[in-house]
């Protein structure tokens, strides 16, 4: 399968713990995005990378959240001192970017986080 | 915050019928996309329409875009039970919002066999 993959698929953690999620994009895609989705809502943008550079962050991304894409390939999203309000599905997507005007984003299956 | 609203929030039809979903948005865009999300699966890209296009077709899908009304519609013809899913519109404006997509709240479509 050459699609976007995310690990783990599910994570249950206690309030106050740190968690880290991983995303592996489609190999030739240079843009990588993180979104958060809560039940009954559409995804909300968190941040995106062009290769290894983090180019935009949403105000939803508090100081407790950090994302990296060290070699321009896979990315990690870390949440420190988790709160119950962090419970959501965290989605990763990748795209070729605006080159050749290809704007479609390809999504992974998501990581469902439950903070107890 | 969400870009806009989708209408209806939920739609239930019989197999073989057509399903129409509407999406409104607030800011300027240069493209609008529709995605489908099945229970337990990720978002799947369905179709993209650019701001200078008014209508686009892909298989059983037909999308329209009215930039003067800031609205779009997705028509699924001859629906099948496998079309049961949540459908989201998403807008992109590369000049002002970089690479992000801004999603609506979605329409839950149920196609009864």
Concise description?
The complex is a heterodimer of chains A (116) and B (113). Chain A is an all-beta fold and 116 residues long.
How does this structure look, described?
- The complex is a heterodimer of chains A (116) and B (113).
- Chain A contains no helices and eleven strands.
- The model of chain A has no long low-confidence stretch (mean pLDDT 92).
- In chain A, 35% of the residues are buried.
- Chain A is mainly beta and 116 residues long.
- Chain A has strands at 5-7, 10-13, 19-24, 31-37, 44-50, 53-57, 65-68, 75-79, 88-95, 106-107, 111-115.
- In chain A, the strands form two sheets. In chain A, strands 2, 4, 5, 6, 9, 10 and 11 form a seven-stranded mixed β-sheet that branches. A four-stranded antiparallel β-sheet of chain A has the order 1-3-8-7, with no helix packed on it.
- Chain B has 113 residues and is mainly β.
- Chain B is built from one helix and eleven strands; from the N terminus they run βββββββββαββ.
- The N and C termini of chain B lie far apart (36 Å).
- The mean pLDDT of chain B is 89.
């Amino acid at each position: 399968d050459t699609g976007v993959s995310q690990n783990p698929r599910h994570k249950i953690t206690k309030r106050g713990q740190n968690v880290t999620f991983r995303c592996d994009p489609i190999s030739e895609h240079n843009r990588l995005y993180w979104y958060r989705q809560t039940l009954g809502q559409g995804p909300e943008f968190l941040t995106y990378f062009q290769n290894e550079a983090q180019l935009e962050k949403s105000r939803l991304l508090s100081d407790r959240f950090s994302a990296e894409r060290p070699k321009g390939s896979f990315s990690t999203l870390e949440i420190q001192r988790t709160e119950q309000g962090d419970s959501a599905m965290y989605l990763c997507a990748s795209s070729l970017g605006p080159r050749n005007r290809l704007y479609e984003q390809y999504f992974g299956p998501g990581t469902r986080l439950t903070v107890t | 915050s969400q870009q806009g609203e989708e209408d209806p929030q939920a739609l239930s039809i019989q197999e073989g019928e057509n399903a129409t979903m509407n999406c409104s948005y607030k800011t300027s865009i240069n493209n609008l996309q529709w995605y489908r999300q099945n229970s337990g699966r990720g978002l799947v890209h369905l179709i993209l329409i650019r701001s200078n296009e008014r209508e686009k077709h892909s298989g059983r899908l037909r999308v329209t875009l009215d930039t003067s009304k800031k609205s779009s519609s997705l028509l699924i013809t001859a629906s099948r039970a496998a079309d049961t899913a949540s459908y989201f519109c998403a807008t992109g404006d590369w000049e002002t919002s970089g690479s992000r997509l801004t999603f609506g709240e979605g329409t839950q479509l149920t196609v009864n066999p």
